[in-house]
Fold these 3 entries.
Entry 1:
Amino acid sequence: MAKGLTWTIDDADHMTQAEIYGEVLTKLGYEYKNLVALTADLAGSTKIGRFQKDFPDRFFNVGIAEMNLFGMASGMAASGLLPVVSTFAAFAALRCAEHVRTDVCYQKRNVKIIATHSGTSFGQAGTTHHCTEDLAVMRAMAGMTVIAPADAYETARAVVAAMEWDGPVYIRIGRSFEPPLHKSMDSFDFEIGKAIKLREGTDITVIATGRTVPGAVEAAEMAANEGLSVKVLDLHTIKPIDVEAIMEAVMETRRIITVEDHNVYSGMGSAVADVIAASGKGCVLKKLGLQDEFSIVGYPDDLLHYYKMDADGIVEAIGQVMKMDFEADEDWEDEI
Amino acid sequence: MALKPAELKKLKQTALRIREQIVEVTYTCGGAHIGGAMSQTDIMVALYYKFMKFDPKKPLLPTRDRFILSKGHGGVGHAVILGYLDCFDKKELLDFNKTGSPFGMHLDWLKVKGVDASTGSLGHGLSIGIGMAIAARLQNKKYHTYVVLGDGELHGGPNWEAIMAAAHFKVTNMTTFVDRNKLCIDGPTEEIMGVEPLKDKFEAFGWKAVEIDGHDFEQIVDAVEQSHKETEKPFVIIANTIKGKGIDFMEGLAKWHYAGLDEEMKKQALASLRRMNKNG
Ligand SMILES: Cc1ncc(C[n+]2csc(CCOP(=O)(O)OP(=O)(O)O)c2C)c(N)n1
């Protein structure tokens, strides 16, 4: 088990992604004496406030002033502290993009960011509180590591791993009513940069990230009933990306669908496309997510459905991609 | 000009109606930013029912006065007022927050008639208001711009950039309110990040600032009239309010920032509103 997790979170089943990270972070506070937690009037909403109970002196609520939040974290990281910053993704990645770039990434400050309510997971709050751009923004920051855990267990493992990871890390989680994907904290291997293979398959691969992963697994099961063999990858780390796992999928299935609660431009699907294009190997890629539009208002699960990021939408996409008979007019042996 | 007794009574009655309806919507939609919606209501009722040139049937008329709820999470209260003015069919409010509804917690001007800017991310509204006010001046238009800020919202730097700019550009055709309910999400505003001395700060930034009871219509009306007469400085009305105003079990408690109501709580909330309206 990862360093720092010498206890089991039996309660994780009942805990949301954010609650569990609040718990984990608090435990880590005992191990990492230089760990400090910061937020901007969202101690309760992001659950980072849990840390304050045990470490009131190492907790800083700066009020609704997110730019100051990241500036302060940068200074703290420059001076021996290990700051963990939490606010909604829209404010961390968009409002503070320049502060994160210039104060954190550019100056190589070891700041860990836990961005909650990402994608469309804050359903009814609408676009101002959704964030379907953060993967793109954060991926473009030199030196930033970008992780989108699929459930509470993965979130816990990601937070622990981030402590020992050299450099800034952006962990993107949902509003936190996400269903669990894994059975327990140690029922899976978690390593930053290594995709988790959830299902083997030979016809098509679904690569999902964040809160869309459980739907991808469900879709694979539904497609299996139709006689299709669907491989599923949980690509929790968007950067550094797992080239090996993606290339294995390319070679085994030649058909890939990516699913992300994000704009399809420059998000996880685009990161996968980069890998495929650079390899010179042919592969069909269909990207599910928001098709360059601003999100509507609705319940978080309804939005997954509306944007075809749930099992139904993925099954539909599988059907479409499987119908393409591109292999007939291409000689796959001809590649460069 | 002092309010006539009949006019005062009408404003109070309207505010009660609006608050009742906010409770109803909060109940049907499963949750809303009820605390801050209650504190802002008297200010907004005074603006919409006494001052603003605004034709609900022509919400985009170029000559209309502009209103920006910079504390956009008060959208539930704004939507109810616009519904009561018949900008749209009130029945649509039953879908507030539901999938596919035009109304989310934060209103979008592209979807909701009568809204002038899509707010929700704090710290944007005042800058937008300044832009609208300068545009009026530049084009010799007579409309006035009103902006309502939260007090917690004032933690954010962008507000202070705007506050500086308003004085610099001598924006006097705009009236700004601070809904000073003294709470943000995590607790009392002064404990989370103090904003006092607020009046002095605005004054130091070149504004004319007055402090009033934000639930007293006479004071609100006086202050707005005074703001209209001001020709030198941007004008801010720091309105001391109570978060959850009118609902006894919510007043002054941060936990009602965003909340849902069950049937029983709804009944209690409505009863409290009516009781307090009689007494006050
Ligand atoms: C930039 C930004 N950061 C954080 C939030 C989340 N948020 C919504 S309301 C709120 C508290 C607002 O407090 P205040 O301005 O005092 O409003 P009120 O008490 O009148 O509801 C916060 C932090 C936000 N909407 N925008």
Note: Chain B is about 45% helix and 10% strand.
Entry 2:
Amino acid sequence: MENPTNLKYSKDHEWLKEEGDKVTVGITYFAQDQLGSLVFVNLPEVGDEITKGEPFCDVESVKAVSDVYSPVSGIVSAINEDLLDNPEKINDDPYDAWFIQVEQITETEELLTAEQYEDFCKEEA
Amino acid sequence: MAQKTPLYDEHTKLNGKMVSFAGFSLPIQYTDITQEHMAVRNKAGIFDVSHMGELTISGKDALKTLNYVLPSDITTLAPGKVRYMPILNQNGGIVDDVLVYCFSTERYRLVVNAANIEKDESWILQNIIGDTQIKNISDTMGLIALQGPVSYEILKNLVSEEHIPKGFFSFVENAQLEEVVCLISRTGYTGSFGYEIYCNSEDTVYVWQKLMEVGTPAGLLPCGLGARDTLRMEACMPLYGQEISDDITPFEASLDFTIKMSKPTNFIGKDALEKKGAPKRIRVGLKVIGRGIVRGESKIILDEKEVGVTTSGTFMPYMNAAYAMGMVDIAHTKIGTVVDIDVRGRKVQGEVVPMPFYRL
């Protein structure tokens, strides 16, 4: 699957969509493919403070539970509650299945363009 | 270094994700655990279980030895039949859980967990009676499990009707599978209809390829250890090291049906089980009714008090819900009891439900 060029990517396989001072975060096609069919997502709550490089949520497949790392530091302003009941949407369309929106951002990880991220994935695979 | 089964090259050809398990390199999955799990429930799956151990027990006193070493009444196990049971230690704990194949009163086969082969062999040797020989034939045997509702349709392309075992837990020795001779039993570790096929190591690739060839058009998928685990959990079959171990009795493990306390002769573990009396904790099934997935080693809590611990669990693909098994204090094992389960610091509600979760 193509990684959309209007998004930015982290080396922990999250995608970010930047709109003004708000950032929307999800996981990439590569990430969901590595994890396998997802059966549960444990999202943070609105108002939670999250920190760059630290887990903000966990996703579970039949096989295992995995942490999802935050590419930014800030305050969670919205969560995609739809994923709580329909975690398979992350596998079906990872770039539509956003996890959280973050505001009051104080720090952001070094991010990659779609092209740089594709090269990065090739090295990881 | 991990040992390779005769099917190692087949797994890599099929892009199996190889992991080390009980000293063997085996695929955890080929494509996707859920897909492989569903194939077994709805069509068929093929598993390499060549890592399992096989011990032959033979001699004039083979029956006498086994009837002492094993807690089931082996005198009622007829030739051509298979029975599941634990091997007990002197404390009534479980040394291993095994399948016992009866060829005659002078020849039996025990199929044992890969991690326990040496332990089982030496335990039986220590307790051997009279004219009994024990031989570990694990390295000469391949074992393939064909599981799922269309298994018979697949097998009958390769094996003539009279060589396919009919009854559940029966087997046919010297069954002709095209060019090779196998032992075929109506057994398995998935809870679905199916067969297990024992053959010589050097014939294992042939049997695998033949089954794949005739099975693929019928929906047969190769399945890895991941699906093997989720299928056995859905069917509430214990896994050694999780639901059962050296210090868990068969009554605690809810395996009462495997023990024949009333058989006329003594057996290892009987005294200890009698002394222990009714178990204080037993294995139960739990359905997760809160949000989350419960796996093993999570505390089970009721009214702020710890009343048990989970032994294994996950999201069960066919049941389409999260379930777990756990050891719970007997006072709180009534069906419908609602408990909290501590999942990495978060409390998730579970309800005691009947086992198995999936029943054919």
Note: The first strand of chain B starts at residue 3 and ends at 4.
Entry 3:
Amino acid sequence: MTNYLDTPLFGIFLSLIAFQIGMYVNKRTKMAIFSPLVIALIIVISTLNFFHIDYEIFNKGGSIITFFLGPATVILAVPLYKQINRLKDSAVPILIGIIVGSSFSIISVIVLGKMFGLTEVVIKSLVPKATTTAISQELSAQIGGIPAITIAGTMVNGIFGNLMGVYIMKFFKIKDKEAVGVALGTTSHAVGTAKAMELGEVQGGMSSLSISIAGIVTVFLAPILIKLLMG
Amino acid sequence: MGVLIVPFLYNQEGGLMRVFKELAIIVGILLFSYVIQQLTKMPVPAPVLGMIILLLSLLLGVVKLEDIELVSRFFLDHLTFLFVPSGVGLMVVWGIIKDQWIIIFLISLLTTILAMGITGITVQLIKGNKGGDK
């Protein structure tokens, strides 16, 4: 059967159907853990495993979809541009917060990863995970990680931040609205921003602003910190 | 993609003509970034470089938001879908991480909690030190 599916159409069709189902389930349950992406991945992987179809066959179409991540990443400048006037009032605390948060995220992954004996390639895959998926998976490939592992880590960050963000803020006694937004956007990207938007306009705007800035900061810091800490 | 894009575009003013111009701007920036990245060998992914160039172009007024409105809305609304194939790649690399996945998962949780806390505390502290201005 695999021979007949040896066309890009198969991968594109399966991805479209799986994502449609994912969006339907997400709309019904309205839970971050049932994100359309998580459900789509479960459906596609189960289908391929069940019918013994190779990833290479799927990825003939898959790679065409992945290609569009390039232009999509460029376009992330648009939400950043729309929110950039929010920087005017307290640019210094926000930018320092993002730089400290992003650095800490990278360093903690490397230190904990080494402590628990993860392999170098896995650690490098996890380093960019706090940034938005478009950036994290590009960066992962750049620094010698495996983008698929990075995407899994990025999803954990986003979903966990969305579900637990409010409690984490309470635990660390973070009450300032801008601080809450920056913290969510810097560490849980767009999925965390969805929660920030529920909390309020300031939080949502700050979070959305922080996504792209954290991405840029991480892209520049990650190679340096990896060199310093992993030699 | 075509199935998604066609009805969306016909509903817009200016129709398909505008979309070609918009796509040309984005693809042009990306191509330029790619060439720069190849020439300088800088360790920044070309799309991220493209994002910075587009941001600067918007700030300088070289590109206006309206110039890329349709294409940007389309991509931002459907961004998550584009991650499906790369995510499916997890099944290929599962062999590498299957013995350690619980550790990887726990490290992901722990670093998220700590990084989130540190980020928020930093912003709050620096804002507080400035004399409480909102």
Note: Chain A has two domains: 2-67, 74-230.
